[in-house]
Amino acid sequence: MINKKSREEIKIMRHAGSIVALVHEQMARVIEPGISTLELDKIAFDIIKKNKAFPTFLGYQGFPNSICASINEEVVHGIPSPDRILKEGDIVSIDVGATYRGMVGDGAWTYPVGKVSLDVQNLLEATKKALYAGIEKMIPDTLLENVSAAIEDVALENKLGIVRQYGGHGVGKEMHEEPFLFNYRTNSNIVIKKNCAIAIEPMLNLGCDEVHSLADGWTVVTDDKKPSAHFEHTVVASEDGPLIMTQLL
């Protein structure tokens, strides 16, 4: 069941999303060679708590931290650690959730660490382009498949692999609600409802589509060990067009 959000719920989600945006604003400032992913986690935790919210990821199905920090070939769900030190030329995907007054904001961004290769820079730019192409299609009473198709088209245009086991999702009182959003065409007939909220999150790879989970039970990596990028916004399909929740107020 796809849950439509009330005006008040959307207002609260917008605040939750702005806290996510504050975290990403700070990530952009502090990510540099030499910083550990655990340090990034602590920074995010402090920002979320300072703003009277709760880190949605912390304890979710046993996840031990406040953010996911995924480096290079790690696609999603990387666990922050004092031993994971960022170095020049890396990329790191930071996925953040904040729960404020019972509503969730969820957003991810992939950051270059210092100077990255041209291929990796193109991967980042194309994945971000895919995100906004998908957002443009978040229009009430149209097919959710249009969002998936827009993301897939950008991936194919740039000859990038598409992560198929993971995708976007409804979001609201829970971090994961219906519907699931594929990042490629599936001939789905699901209709986008007015005032539904969906986390749109393309995950594109510089190489193959295939991924697998590591022994920690969380970290997902590409099979060919080539870099992966992940960009995500929480978006409401309003009568005035797509509303991005995970932006600064």
Please render the helix and strand layout as text.
Elements: H1 7-30, H2 37-50, E1 54-55, E2 67-71, E3 74-76, E4 91-100, E5 103-112, H3 118-136, H4 145-157, E6 161-162, E7 168-170, E8 177-181, E9 197-200, E10 203-205, E11 211-213, E12 220-222, E13 228-230, E14 233-238, E15 241-244
Antiparallel strand pairs: 1-4, 2-4, 3-12, 4-5, 6-10, 7-8, 7-9, 9-14, 10-13, 11-12, 14-15
Helix pairs in contact: 1-2, 3-4
Describe it.
The strands form four sheets. The chain has a five-stranded antiparallel beta sheet. Strands 1, 2, 4 and 5 form a four-stranded antiparallel beta sheet that branches. It contains four helices and 15 strands. The chain has one domain (7-244): Creatine Amidinohydrolase. By secondary structure, it is an alpha+beta fold. It is globular, with a radius of gyration of 17 Å.
Percent range of helical residues: 25-40%
Number of strands: 15
Number of domains in the coordinates?
A: 1
- Numbering strands along the chain, what is their spatial order in the largest sheet? 8-7-9-14-15
Q: Low-confidence parts lasting 5 or more residues at pLDDT below 50?
A: none
The multimeric state of the shown protein is single chain
N-to-C CA distance: 30 Å
Average pLDDT metric = 98
Shape: globular
Named CATH architecture: Alpha-Beta Complex
Q: In angstroms, what is the radius of gyration?
A: 17 Å
Q: Can you summarize the main beta sheet?
A: 5 strands, antiparallel
> Order of SSEs, N→C?
HHEEEEEHHEEEEEEEEEE
CATH T-level topology: Creatine Amidinohydrolase
- Pairing-aware structural class of the strands and helices? alpha+beta
CATH class: Alpha Beta
Percentage beta strand: 25-35%
